[in-house]
Amino acid sequence: MLDQKNDWNLKVRVWIERDGEKVLGPGRYELLGHIDTHHSISAAAKQMKMSYRRAWSLVQDINRAAGETLVEVSTGGKGGGGAILTPRGKEAVRIYESLLKKTARLASDFNKPARKSS
């Protein structure tokens, strides 16, 4: 193990891939969270100060990379379109959140000041 020095910190960035393509990372996770809350890609994009076109492109990339639909989109109609996370999309978000918590604990343990031996 590395000798831990006071000026060393562990930083971890988590993402999930399938066949070498990113399915979820910090930004995509945030986008899915906003879609789940607002049931709208447009509203999610506004929350993230992102263009609708960029958000739509990310949703397409997420679904393609996942090899299945994580975000289901409906178009038109009286109330307009909408977007929801599928059950598999909700599961992917839960898994990602679990990984974030586990890696945060690991980083926190590493970043604690080393105890001096007596």
Structure description:
There is one protein chain. This protein is an alpha+beta fold. The protein has one domain (17-110): Winged helix-like DNA-binding domain superfamily/Winged helix DNA-binding domain (Arc Repressor Mutant, subunit A, Orthogonal Bundle). Helices cover 51% and strands 13% of the residues. The longest helix is centred in the last third of the chain and has 25 residues, at 87-111. The two termini are 20 Å apart. The mean pLDDT is 88.
In brief:
This protein is 51% helix and 13% strand.
Give me some keywords for this one.
single chain; 118 residues; Arc Repressor Mutant, subunit A; two-stranded antiparallel sheet; LysR family transcriptional regulator; WH_DNA-bd_sf; DNA-binding transcription factor activity; WH-like_DNA-bd_sf; Molybdate_resp_trans_reg
**Which class best fits the helix and strand makeup?**
alpha+beta
User: Gap between N and C termini, in Å?
Assistant: 20 Å
Strands of the widest sheet, in order across it, are 1-2
Give me the oligomer status. single chain
The 3D shape can be described as elongated
Task: Return the CATH class.
Answer: Mainly Alpha
- In total, the number of strands is 4
